[in-house]
Structures
1.
Amino acid sequence: MLVTAGLLAAFVLVMRLGRDLGRDGVSGGGGGPAARGGQIVASIRGEPRTFNRYVAQDQTSEALSLLLQARLVRINRATFELEPWLAEKWESSPDGRTHTIHLRPGLTWSDGTPLTSADVLFSLRAIYDPKVESVLADSLTAGGQPLRAAAPDAQTVVVTFAAPSGRGVRLLDGLPILPKHKLEAALTAGTFASAYNTTTPPADVVGAGPFVLREYQPGQRVVLDRNPRYWRKAPDGSPLPYLDRIVLQIVPEQNAELLRIQSGETDLTSTELRPEDYVPIRRAEEEGRLRLIELGVGPDADALWFCLKPEVKGKDPRFAFVQRPEFRRAISYAVDREAFAETVFLSAAVPVWGPITPGNPNWFWPDIPRYPHDDDRARMLLREIGLEDRNGNGVVEDAAGTEARFTVITQRGIGWYERGTAVVRDELAGIGIALEIAPLELGALIQRLQACDYDAMYYRPVFNDLDPAANLDFWLSSGSSHFWNMSQKTPATDWERRIDTLMLEQAAELNPDRRIMQFRLVQQIMAENLPVLHFAAPRMYYAHSARLQGVVPSVLRPPVLWNADGLSVSQ
Amino acid sequence: MARFLARRLLFALVLVLVVSSASLVLARLAPGDVSAQLGPFASPTEIASTRARFGLDRSPAAQWTLWAGRALRFEFGESFLYNRPVRGLIGRAAANTAALAVVALAAATLLGIPLGMFTGSRRGAGAALVRGASLVFLSVPPLLTSLILVFIAATTRLFPPGGMTTAGALEVGWSAWLLDVAIHIPLPALALALPIAATFERLQSQSMTEALHQPFALAALARGVAPRDVIVRHAWRVSLRPICAVYGLAIGALLSGSFIVEFVTAWPGLGRLMYEALRARDIYLVAGCAAMGGLFLAFGSLIGDLLLAAADPRVRERQAA
């Protein structure tokens, strides 16, 4: 008993000491003026697989790339405006094919080596090298062709597009510039894809971003220190970034991430809050420990779609009616989107009728054809294609007796997916369409998706860029993200052929107003044929510690770290 | 004794081989593979290249043969999730899990055995309270215990809600680092230790009651030996046998319990590593973690046998034979 009592006493003593250490280690004061120096702790959900953004496209890699590397130009994630970055200015030819880019004078890499046009040329060479198999290569094309570049002098780069591109210089936001002097040997040797990996000594991971790598401990953290040679200055002329250090703590589980920020262990989370997290965070805000920000409506919405690949589903008797737009329109009429937003997102969502949400203001079309909740209209559409409840069992069937009964797969463990599929199932039961829900692990879900081995799927596809021309993989029938019928050799339907034509024209169009009009036509065709059904786009909320200053939140991920050089902590 | 140790070593090798091979093959046969980590809309080229890199374009048998050949040279392949050799990852994680297991086992022993001696030799409200608490901790799974402890930690801010060290505390000396680990370890250690402590308490309690009714204990009491001395000097040693017998199993339970506890409390150990590896279908990492887990189990079993031999001369004689 004495041993047990002693153990408990020691435990309490250590806890008290520990509480003090924890405070010294992370937490700062409350509010107050911004200051230079200090560190923040942000959580990230996944391990970095590499520090080479050219070969990885997960969220952690993108966040690290924004912190460690720099681009020629930057799309401001809050305003969506194009900003000069490593490039001080540029001129574009009237045909939109040639862009002369002038680098800022005096740019250096984090190791002190000058950053010149040779590094830009090297970066483009690396991206298009077939041995690298860069994940960025496809997004850095114009008319399906790689960009060509020349360097008349050390400060100038001339980038030539094979075809006009509506995105113009914005396209270069997707090109992190990497140092030729550190990586050229790897590119020549064919080992570039494994360069800047997680075992590379941190000092060798040279970049031009606001921070440099200090250490990576697998399963625990990534530590980044201020880059003393960073080129950007604050409005008062003082050097950026303000912070001395960012610690990215690896917390794979979202509940644990929430607890960390609530307890003051971390200052930032990696993603927006879930609807169910809003109340506890609001309480912490009222206590003055956290700040809660509404980012606005998110740019992505949950989606329901059926596999429409004739090669796979052609022999399924249900395909005869699933492929009819009337069937999908009936589903759209049957779902009460207001109630959906209320139930699935606990009212923190807005109804949507297409893949482009109000969170993408430049491309959102408020007048897109809508399907107001109307069960009678839905039943009428089903009758038009021969689907009626002939045997009185509550499920409609065609003349041959094939019932409209489907299994919808979704990702297991995601609250809003499970709520969303349940609401859709209940709504569709009202018009005689039976859905069974099968939540799956992500790996199994993806395997089914790629093989088109499913009836219907509920998921939230995320666009990498807000400009539709950057997401041709989704819009074009040949695209690998055209998920209802991926990688078609020739368009399976007339309406997909029309979308292909319009999207290719839109991507090459230089006039912004014409691009918008062309894209509205695309949205109209999508809304009429509904290969994918969208019901609501969530409002996004984000929380950070009250001591953090200079936060410019974005609906895109990472919501705050994209602008890390402007962050500071109050004294 | 040498023969006994040799038998144990052979058992450990077979266990490691079987467990890791089964994990590799099962993880390989489960739906989905590591290419899922590229996201739902990765291009076919990316998927094919990733599958080829990890040998998923071969048959499961061919892949196992290749892996087993390398494993004999202590090369367990490369982790997709961490993009580095599995060997280094499991070494570090196993050290963290071992530290957690040692603390949890010590806590379970120091809590469970004295409380079992108390409840086995006394009656009254105090003993009933301890017995009730033990039944509660025996019924509650480590997942729930760890969630409750994390919730208490986050709301009271008495101790950190997870991790092994304070995220922002860098560049600290060894003593400060050890103190930092000591602050973080109680939460996962308690989550693991409480059900085991409850098991020890129940076993020790029953065994103590039985020992106190044995003739030697009754005779000692009749001779006027103080009850405390009868319990501590005579009955306790005799009553230890069931505890020693389950010690090896307890080490195995610590490892299986650590899967979810390490995940919930963000302890960077073997359990969390394997959980993440399984989720990502990182099959070489799964196999590596399973091999290390098998080694832990074999080691735990050996410790249990040695403790049993120390407590019971009859077992010692059988082992020597």
2.
Amino acid sequence: MPTVKSFSEIQRVSVEPSSDRILSYVEAIREATAMEMRRDQRVVVFGLDVDDPKAIQGTTKGLWEEFGKDRVFGTPLSEDAMTGVAIGMAMAGLRPIHIHIRMDFLMLAMNQLINVAAKSRYMYGGTVSVPIVIRAMIGKSWGQGAQHSQGLHSFFMHVPGLKVVAPSTPYDAKGCLLAAIRDEDPVIFVEHRMSHYQKGIVPLEEYEVHPGKARVTRVGRDVTIVGISYMQTECLHAAKLLEEVGIDAEVIDPIWLSPLDIDTICHSVERTGRLIVVDTAWTSCGASAEMVAAVAERLSGIRDLKLVRIGFAPSTCPTSPTLETAFYPNAQKIAKKAFNLTEERDLNSFPSNSQISAELDEAFKGPF
Amino acid sequence: MMLNRLYREFYRIRRVEEEIARVYPTDCIKSPVHLSIGQEAVSVGISEALKPDDIVYGTYRGHALYLARGGSLPKMIAELYGKITGCARGKGGSMHLIDRNQGVMGMSAVVGTTIANATGHAYALKLRKENRIVACFFGDGATEEGVFFESLNFAALKKLPILFVCENNGYAIHTAQHQRQALLNIQEKAAAFGVPGACLDSLNILELIETSREYVNEIRRGKGPRFLEVKTYRWREHVGPGVDFHLGYRTKEEASPWIENDVVAQIRSMLDDRKCEQIEQQVEQEIIEAFAFAENSPFPDETELLTDVYGELNSCRR
């Protein structure tokens, strides 16, 4: 795993947007893609259904019309070969973006991603680079079920040579995608289906949100809550619930999972002494486990620590609404855990008993 | 002229492989080797039809292809020795040879993987309207992988400038093709996916060259991908320097027609002795120098361990 130091040249906390231009996450992705395709002839976009009428939730809408079918095309149902094709294109000097409407489908591409994309620069002695972007969406809600719901980003964090990013806002979606396309290494770009509905400030101009820098999204003193991908949204809602009971949470969005900005997280935990990492994935050997372990390694013996991971229940994702609700973390569950960690007692409900999560879920009307 | 050049290529590859086999027991070579002895004609014959700026992708049994395409011999031996002067700075070994200057893209130890990479490379060449082609080499085992069929389909669909070359030596490690495949004509399977081609014998080098030229020309004229299945035979064991007839999965009788009709000897017999001896002396000298270069080169410094895991911004070492 690269240290943050090796990216020092490009490190800067992306300035908080001053624009008042509002876009959805979907529009931000589309804008970044089109912008970079105009700027750089080498960028090509492909994947199952990228040129169909639904255009990957709209993220690729209008692209083939503007850039032609040679640079934007739907592929045969061949994830393994098409990933290999992307790698070959990249080694030949193109900048491919390969899109998967579900992250689960990446399992069909693992050989190429792990054995070729991640390894090529190293095993060929630095004579090739593989600048590919793999966009993969984590599904949720309305009974997506076992094979349309997995957050498998930790698989890729495990392997040297890959970068992993999971932007949670439209601003970061645009900035991270531009940075990912321009990056010399393979980047797994994790989108969450629920994040697609988010709206937020997105400046018109180009900007990059660079690898290896997290963002503190809410300053607080009592407990540090790290929210990965869509869980960032839930964590910010949890912080509001906690505010009602007098707990001041600091919330961090890691944005890039590899390289991971563990410094920013440690810095916060050094003050609060309490860390909750919330992932839209299982906890075992996951991104949350990695963060908790890294913080423990760094701060053990320096101060007392309370460390918690929250993620999917340790089961396959069910489809029935009652089971699905139990399966996923949400703002209420996060806030209750944070309360317990801070006050050392349980709280049954918060004054407003916010329905925030439910409202977000309402935005999604099936069928997929 | 062509025969002189061919003899030099064949003799050079054969002798490099024999020298690797000879040196191997001394443990100077720090990498498993999959020798090309007996299969040289596939790489040499098809390279004869390619232009210098064409691209090739190969496999872990890639010494012959690397050398036939002009890959640096000293860098290859240094790579086998694990030295910093190797073609992959001592980080790839025998199975991951590469020489970008000669259009030799990296070779892979996972069977079939480079087929898709070669296909993607061909897409890039076509998109940029370059008049170059890709030749993609793989074994009979690779044609059982899903990626083979997926790549054929895509290459045919997009009419990509790629020559698929199946180097059929009849075995995947120790298992014969008929124990693994219901239909033995691999070229026909490719044809079913829309990639026409032929099945040839590596012992007939002149026919192999002629057909390769024909296909390469068709590909260059935009006719789409072509397929060559070339029947050949591995003389040595799957991995390592020795022979393996004692294992019992194949017999010396099966090997003997291939060895008796050895292409290297065939070509030598067509040339005059003095010319051959001259070539041989030059090649022997080159081999001595390459091994000496490897011997005398330093191992990578420990700091090399963590370089080239990731790239720096906008730079890629050439």
